[in-house]
Each structure stands twice: as C-alpha cells, then as structure tokens.
Amino acid sequence: MQTTPPNSPPRPSNPPVKPIGSVSRGWLAAVLAALVLIALLAFLAHVWESFEGGPVRSTAQFSEHVMATRQAGEDVYDQLSPVPLNQAYAEREGSSSCVDDLGFDDTGVSRSEPIYTWHLDFTSRRDYLAAVDHLKADWTKEGRTVKDIPAPAAGERGHGLPGISTTDDNGTELALRPEYFTGEPVIRAEGTCMRYHDEYGYDYDQDGEAGW
To answer: How far apart are CA 84 and CA 163, in angstroms?
Structure first.
C-alpha cells in the first residue's frame, strides 16, 4: 500500500542578489546629490550675503570705496572730448535701493551706495555726440564692455541724445547720458552697496558727506 509522505514546509527562497553595478550606481548618485546640495547651499549663501550688502567692512574701507567711486567719475570727465564748456563738480545723490528693510544689520553697522553726478554743458548737440563717440572708443580700447543707452523718445527730455555706460574693475557703474529729469547731459558714477562699521555714529546717506 502506498503511503503519502507528510507535507514538508516550503524551502525559503533566497533574496535576489543585486548586481554590483547597480549598487555602485546608487552610491555614486547619492554622492553626486550631496555635492549638488553643498554647491547649492554655498551659492545661496553667497547670494544672501550679496543681498545683505556684502560682508561688513571698516569705516576706512567704506571711505576708500566712496573716494574710488568719485574718482572713477572724475576720470570719465577728464576723458571727454570735446571738453564741456563748464567746469563740472561732483554732486552726491542719495540711494533708495541700498537699505536694510529686513533688519540684517547689527547695531553700529550701516550701509550706503555712493552715487555722484556731474552736470555738463556742451557747446552743441554735435559736441555731445562727438564726446559720446570718443568716450566709447576709449572704453573699448581699455577692454571694457560698453552698453549703448537709447536716446529718449520724441516729447521726452533729452530727446535724441543717446548715451553709453560701462562698469569698471571695482564694480562702479559709469555712464554718460541725458539726466532722467532734466534731459541735460551728465556723467553718473554709481558704486556698489556696502555694509560698514559706522564708527562715527551716523548714517552717511542721511547726514551728507561728512566723513567721506
């Protein structure tokens, strides 16, 4: 008589072995993701610091920044040909963009963006246009990138007077162009926003040029 053997439990199946190549690819992807994250965090930190006005500098460094901005504009004035009729003088402008709206600055830290303009008086429209062409040629020879500023449209102040702009090695934006409100030719030198230790206890943007 044939007997049925007792049911034996099923043998456990071995888990599939992952190919070595897939393990290596997974590890490599994790390392690359970590590197990308580190680079992104470093980039965001740099952007955030720039948004704050950069690292906090000393009062002396800020004063040098202001003087360099003004000198950059004076150098543009000296390059003009034909020479304007008047002896132009630097006029300081206030800045509404270089402010601490979010409360980043500690006590004793201020920020400012030096901006200067020189109002020019040329003999004629032809002389102004010749000065623009001459300055553009000089800047190009110096290896600077020169941007053309379109002339204001008909009916606007400064109609028909184009301008040019460039940025120097210190980040100062320089321009020869019609002034926004009067339409008269001006040189404009705009330095970068800088945070600094205010050793004198006042805000340069509010108290004029004292200490500059």
So the answer is: 16
The secondary element (H helix, E strand) that includes residue 23 is helix 20-52
3-state secondary structure (DSSP) of residue 149: strand
* SS3 state of residue 179: coil
Q: What is the DSSP string of 126-193?
A: HHHHHHHHHHHHHHHHTT---EEEPPPPTTSTTTT--EEEEE-TT--EEEEEE-TTT--EEEEEEPPP
Q: Are strands 147-149 and 163-167 parallel, antiparallel or unpaired?
A: antiparallel
Q: What is the mean pLDDT of residues 101-108?
A: 74
- Tokens of residue 14, six digits: 């071995």
Give residue 48's pLDDT: 45
Q: What is the mean pLDDT of residues 119-143?
A: 97
Give the range among 44-48, 122-126, 128-132 with minimum mean pLDDT: 44-48
Cα 164 from Cα 151, distance rounded (Å): 10
Amino acid at 126: R
- Which residues fall within 8 angstroms of residue 67, CB to CB, at 6 or more apart? 212
CB 164 within 8 A of CB 187: no
Has this prediction a pTM greater than 0.85?
A: no
Taking each helix axis from N to C end, the angle separating 125-141 and 59-79, rounded to the nearest 10 degrees, works out to 120
> Nearest to residue 68, comparing CAs of 90, 46, 51?
90
In angstroms, rounded to a whole number, what is the distance separating the alpha carbons of residues 207 and 200? Answer: 11
